[in-house]
Amino acid sequence: MLVVDDDTTVRDVVRRYLEHAGYEVELAGDGETALRLMAAREPDIVVLDLMLPGIDGLEVCRRVRERGSTPVVMLTALGEEEDRIAGLQIGADDYVTKPFSPRELALRVSSVLRRANKAYEPRVVRDGDLVLDVAAHTATLDGTPLQLTTREFDLLAFFIANAGRAFGRAELLERVWGWQFGDQSTVTVHVRRLREKIEKDPAKPMRLSTVWGVGYRYDRCSID
């Protein structure tokens, strides 16, 4: 994994804790170095501080997402809600706020990696022109590949598997993210991103509807 933070102490503490947990860790102190290391060797996951000199963390995350689906866990300062939401909007999979427990970070990393490499039952899920291959972890809309993050794919697969049922944000956090506690705006951001990718008009969603006072519901566009 690649840990990107301009604070030497944070990098060293995170590296030692994650190596003790069994991970191979590379370090970068700025965005430019991080991108160079990723170009030379694609990491399995990136732990990324948003406040970096030069190329900031949001831009690094954006470029990671342009390259593919490498999971990203953001490090943000407590109270930087706008930056956290911005990171989720451009495709980060999870976040940890500073100051953080190294043990919590390791658990978050493990959770994201587990979901990214989840062994789905080989099957294809179809809803009209929307097709999810849960074995290959790919999705297409009208034959065009969708660029979904791991979290977005998991959320969409969960919704389709439970079409017609409304879920609250807290329940989605627990059942898709595996969190019993967390910032529920994370769900809102991911639903908005999914609508931008699967709806013809995100402002008037036909598939992923808001159920006022409850949460969200997926409605199939085709009849099985």
Condensed summary:
Keywords: DNA-binding, Phosphoprotein, Transcription, Transcription regulation, Two-component regulatory system. The protein is built from 8 helices and 12 strands.
Overview of this structure, please?
The chain has 2 domains: 116 residues, Rossmann fold; 95 residues, Winged helix-like DNA-binding domain superfamily/Winged helix DNA-binding domain (Arc Repressor Mutant, subunit A, Orthogonal Bundle). It is 42% helix and 20% strand. It contains 8 helices and 12 strands. A 5-stranded parallel sheet has the order 2-1-3-4-5, sandwiched between helices. Strands 6-7-8-9 form a 4-stranded antiparallel sheet, with helices on one face. Strands 10-12-11 form a 3-stranded antiparallel sheet. A hairpin with a 4-residue loop joins strand 7 and strand 8. The longest helix has 15 residues. The protein is globular. 32% of the residues are buried.
Largest sheet: 5 strands, parallel
Mean pLDDT, to the nearest integer, reads 87
Rg, Å, rounded: 18 Å
CATH-level-2 architecture of the largest domain: 3-Layer(aba) Sandwich
- Element-level helix/strand string: EHEHEHEHEHEEEEHEHHEE
Could you outline the blueprint of secondary structure elements for this entry?
Blueprint: E1 2-4, H1 8-20, E2 26-28, H2 31-40, E3 46-49, H3 57-67, E4 72-77, H4 81-89, E5 94-98, H5 102-116, E6 124-127, E7 130-133, E8 138-141, E9 144-145, H6 150-161, E10 166-167, H7 169-177, H8 185-198, E11 208-211, E12 215-218
Parallel strand pairs: 1-2, 1-3, 3-4, 4-5
Antiparallel strand pairs: 6-7, 7-8, 8-9, 10-12, 11-12
